[in-house]
Amino acid sequence: TGVVPFVALLLLQRRPVAGRALLVTGSGCPGHGLCRSNVLEQTRRQVAVLNATAQELFSLYVSGAWGWPGVPSESDKLCNPAGIFFPAFRVNRTSERKEVMVAMYKLFAFLNTSLGNITRDQEELNPMAKELLERLHNTTKTTRGLISNLTCLLCKNYNIFQVDVRYGDSSKGKSAFKKKQQGCQVLRKYVQVIGQAARVLLPHLSPS
Amino acid sequence: MFSRWSWVACGFYLVLNICSPDASSGLVQSCGHIIPESPVLALGSNFTALCILNESCLDFGNIYASQIIWKIKNRLVPKEQYREINRTVSSVTFNDTSSLATPLTCNILADGQMEQNIYGITVTVGLAPEKPKNLSCIVHQVSRFTYVMTCTWDPGRHTFLDTQFKLRYSWPEEVFPDCIPKDVNNSCSITDIQFFVNTEIWVEATNALGKAESDRLVVDPIDIVKPLSPQNVSVTSGILPTVLQLTWENWISYAVMTLKFNIRYRIVGDTDWMEVPSEDTASPRTSFSVQGLRPYTKYIFSIRCMKEDGQGYWSDWSEEKIGTTIEDQPSKGPPIWRIIDTSHSPAFWTVHLIWKALKPFEANGVILQYEVTVRDKSSLSCPVKKYNVTSTNHTLQLPEGTYEVTLVARNSVGASPPSVLLIPASNSKAPVKNLRTLPKHDKLWVGWTAPNSYVLKYVIEWCLVSSSSDCIIEWQIAQGDVQGVDLKGIKPFKCYLITVYPLYADGQGSGQSVKAYLKQDRPSKGPTVQTKKVGKAEAVLTWNHLTVEEQNGFIRNYTILYKTIDGNETVVTVDPSKTEYTLSSLTSDTLYTVRMMASTDNGSSTGPDFTFTTQKFGKGEIEAIVVPVCLAFLLIVLLGVLFCFNKRDLIKKHIWPIVPDPSKSNIAQWSPQVPAKHNFNSKDQMYPEGSFTDVSVVEIEADDKKSFSEQDLKPFDLLKKEKSTSEGHSSGIGGSSCMSSPRQSVSDSDEGETTQNTSSTVQYSTVVLNGYRDQTPLQVFSRSESTQPLLDSEERSEDHSGGADSTAQRQQYFRQNGQDETNTDRPCFERTKQITHADEGDLVGFVQLQISGQSSQPLGLGMEKNTQEAALSSVLQTCTEGQTVRPGTVEENPLSVDEMPKSYLPQTVRQGGYMPQ
């Protein structure tokens, strides 16, 4: 049908180098029966949930993954996301809704893969951090649901069946420290971007 | 013959074919098989199976499809369902698979008799799965970040087959792994759920006969969440005594779900919950201040929550938390009442002030003390007396008068409004009217009609009436605008005395009382009845009233039930105030069983049975019989005595006729053998030794004709009637009356007429002169006017024989007229002379007065009759007391009359004398 299953995206994001993949293809909206009017509100709530839990997730990661209580000052350096890839989120409140939706899709597609990698690494490196792992799982699931809803919105409202997505660098094969650092950098950036996204996207995601 | 061997060979081949291992597969080679192999069939459908025989079996054993028989288990399938398709194939058809069972076997009938199994299949009959219905899901929050979605559905009918159910769910672009129920077929739980995504959920049911899917449920799991109840609830008291603040934690992120709440609370000890208005808690929060509470009261709180928009489910109620409001000053004064004891002195009261402790919601804290103020209203000069009391009663000694008592309760915050009680000198005001009670479930309602005057309050006193203890008064106060109260704590089946007093502004009304039961029952026992008095036809029953504890209700009546052993029971209803009742119209001398029943409005109880027997005679009946009889007897006796007394002369004539004294008769003069010197009047002279010759003297008065005939014989008649016969010779005249000799009797006759005739016609006397103890016998004269042989031998022989035993003792009486007066008080036996019949020569002179032809009785009988004779003699002696006793000498004469010298004295009846012969 031209639609790439979401599972494929998960496989793609495991490539060591970020690539580009077809997100939605084909002429029909998948699961049109489920793409209801409440999806917009659901998307807003999902962004709000991610925004509300991002900082706590980051703190848990820093303390759980590094063994530091709270967020030590050293984490600013270690977790500085300057050198990592993170999707650009160059939209504001005045941007078109379609543009916002596409930007959101790119952002959460990247986050979903990155959170998957971080969760995998933490399960390997820090299996006893139950709460962190639980938070990572929940956040990942939320991004999955968010992608599902954005797919519905893009397809239903804008007939967009394909979006170019770039995934982050794979942590596979890297050292544990690097894995932890990369995860911390992603989460640090995630905290910053999700807050921005929530603020910017709020008027666009409100029922019009 | 050949055919038989052929079938044997065939059977052997079959067995061999079945049992021998196959060279290639090592399995048993069959002579045929069934198609289809182990089918699964829909219940109620038709089914056809084919049994195909192997060619090898045909060649060797002459087995053909026509010999095939089909069996279900051990039951033969009717051949109408068979069809021989060709020489090796037989089919069987079932129009309804519900008649099928497993196994279905194909068999052949070898040699017409031997049944050999060819093949068998297992047939499974069942149903295709129904479409699962009523699919519903709920998301349970199991921890702060963990949710489990549980879906349930109706799996439909039983399929009789292994049916698999799968719960499936998907997103628009993603289908998640199926949820396979474990051990059940109607529910499954999913842990990997995601909020804010529309999820499609459905159930698939699959078995060998098909697959069915439920309707698809599209739901955002966030809308079906049952959250965890608020955690860590705490209650804190605030500044105000009517406010408590609740705080808690929500375990669902605000971002995920906003919640609304329900807060419920109740006073400790109460069972009814109160709820904070839902609109006050419809917004997300983690604390709430509950207002309008009672001061110093313990409250229990509990909270629950659900999604703010109302979608989903309410959480369970949180754990209960207790909080207590702070104290406040008492809201009202304690109800106060008094009991006045004037028993010591009417002019000096002992006033027991009693009041009730304030209820917690009135006390608003811990009552530290009560302040009692007493003011004498009749004397303004008297100072107000104040008392601080920690208990709920206070006793005062007050002179008679009017007092105003004020009571205040005080706690740590402040004092209550005062309660005022006026104690008037007398309760002269109007009482309540129409006091009545009515049970209402477990309460007893007391109602009354208010007096015409304005009443401030009413005091209702009540106490449990007991026969063993005093009435302990309980009381309560009702406001003046009510006309009825419910009394609580009233026990069923107990009698209560209720009194209502109206309290006026200027005095108190007299109390009106009524007895009441909350609930009545039948008496616990019946009265014990007993008799107080029992007569011939009536009985007076008595019983005691049942005690109030035994009554269990108002005794409406007593019922007396009494009956005889075999009679019907008679029922009498008696007024309950009675303790005595008289049963009348009873049958005399009859055993009665009586029992008594006491009845209330709710039943009756019967006491023990009591039996009594009525008397045979009524009161005075015996006296009425005995007394008159005695009186009559006495009267008769008295009359008889009087008669005898008045007629003593006449009686004497009849019984003891005057016998002329032979000594005075002329015969003495002409009797040549009688010496003149014989003096009959002087017995002692003649018989100095007390022995004399028996002489019978008969005095006959010529002028009294009857004395010789009728009157003389009457005593004999009487004697005969009295059966005073005895052995020996009859005295006839004197002997019987005086019992001169118990061994002598009157030979009387039962034929009185004959006797009378004889006596009237035969008058004779025999005077026998006999010597006593060899003394010279006296001259004996016998007189008679009869010419017939007087002393016939038969009678004498009888007399002789009858008196044979008594011959040793002979008695003879001798009486003379001249001695009558002097000898009346002598017992006749004093002059009894015994005569011994020594021999015939010792003849005793006798006088035999022949009354009738009957002779004397045998001695034995005569002895028995002596007692009667003695009694009779005493009677006669009594009757004849004072009269002249005329002894008749009766002597048994053992000798024959013929042998005795006889002389007959011609009797001149008219002249009353004897003429010498």
TrEMBL record, chain A:
The keyword Methyltransferase does not apply. Pfam families: LIF_OSM. SMART domains: LIF_OSM. One of its GO terms (cellular component) is extracellular space. It comes from the Eukaryota. One of its GO terms (biological process) is positive regulation of cell population proliferation. One of its GO terms (molecular function) is growth factor activity. It is found in: Secreted. Residues 1-19 form the signal peptide. The keyword Secreted applies. InterPro entries: 4_helix_cytokine-like_core, Leukemia_IF, Leukemia_IF/oncostatin. Keywords: Cytokine, Secreted, Signal. LIF has the capacity to induce terminal differentiation in leukemic cells. Its activities include the induction of hematopoietic differentiation in normal and myeloid leukemia cells, the induction of neuronal cell differentiation, and the stimulation of acute-phase protein synthesis in hepatocytes. This is Leukemia inhibitory factor. It comes from Sylvia borin.
Automatic annotation (TrEMBL), chain B:
CDD domains: FN3. GO terms for molecular function: cytokine receptor activity. The keyword Repeat applies. It is a single-pass type I membrane protein. It is found in: Cell membrane. SUPFAM superfamilies: Fibronectin type III. Residues 1-25 form the signal peptide. This is Interleukin-6 receptor subunit beta. Belongs to the type I cytokine receptor family. Type 2 subfamily. It holds the Pfam family fn3. Residues 793-802 have a biased composition (Basic and acidic residues). The keyword Protein biosynthesis does not apply. SMART domains: FN3. Its main location: membrane. Residues 131-228, 229-328, 333-431, 523-617 form the Fibronectin type-III domain. Residues 778-790 have a biased composition (Polar residues). It comes from the Eukaryota. GO terms for cellular component: plasma membrane. Residues 719-762, 778-809 are annotated as: Disordered. The chain crosses the membrane at residues 625-645. Keywords: Cell membrane, Disulfide bond, Glycoprotein, Immunoglobulin domain, Membrane, Phosphoprotein, Receptor, Repeat, Signal, Transmembrane, Transmembrane helix. One of its GO terms (biological process) is interleukin-6-mediated signaling pathway.
